[in-house]
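Data availability (excerpt). The following record was deposited with the supplementary files.
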Amino acid sequence: MADAAAQEGAEQLLHLKLALLAGEPPACILALARKAGGGSITSHVQNFLLENFTGTNVDRRQNSTYTTTIFKRVISEVELSSGVVIDELYEEFAQRMLSKAKDSLLNRTDFMYKEISFLSSTYDNVSSRLSVVARLSCSSNMLEGDTGCSLWPSSLFLSEFILSYPKIFSTKCCFELGSGVGLVGICLNYVGASKVILTDGDTSTLANMKENMELNNLCIEQEDSEVLKESKNKVECKYLSWEEVSESDLRGYQPDIILGADIMYDPVCVPHLVRVLSMLLRRHGRQGETRGKSDEFETEGPVAYIATVIRNAETFNCFTKSAADAKLSAINITSSAAPSNFLPYMLSYDRSSVQLLKITLLS
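Predicted structure:
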């Protein structure tokens, strides 16, 4: 019993730590802190926060405003519940309020460093739970034009799908549309995709994506680079405008799998998206087989997996109609291909809102 309780306590503290590294909203952090303390934010939990969230490289990378907000909310909650706030937490918060950050990274309030840790469901102990860790620079201002540099639920869902069914993607050439921060590409590389091509039509998003690949020790493939050709940890980051791309531009690519997360966001863009999907799905005539855990993944030729949150029914209906007109089959496989939950600590992630579509050419 004691061992089980210790294991559960360690698990809850791990979730709290990973949530902090992932930049979860303060309300989610407080909920996890309460759970780790058995219903309240105890002195033990406060010490844990200080030990794991100050004086480290992670702390220097994190957005200073975020960390200060977390400490402020913790102090307020403990005081309101007539609990004891440890002196060290008061001191740390006071220093943050009085000092002016000298590090330019701390002064960047528009971007935030996050670590998204995917937890394996099979493990011997808490310390061996980590499956893959993605280090990302993400926008903290998604409502003012930085949507491409933000982390969206569909990219988390698609990443979980990749990690749940690695055999589908292993040894395959994978091409992602609207890659954003590059999380999906990191997971594709992890499961052994033979080639990973990430694309986006926004130059600032593309620049941030390349920085994220370097953060994860992935090489950005360049022309005539013999070193990169021999490297297994490589990706291509390409500019791709759906409106302007032509068949000749895509001639060099013959992807086995096309992916996309939250890319049905505007009815105006939908016809261009469907046109690009059609070109990529028709790129090569060779027959291939995609194997997975069920018949859902048995298909000849290239296939696309698109994860999306249906925020606007009109936009989604526009996509399904355009896809049908283009002789594309779009099947909802969300239930039959539900991925494992690799992110139990991300309370802000509503995986139930995401739909997964499998898209192929109609025979």
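Summary of structural features: The two ends are 58 Å apart (CA to CA).
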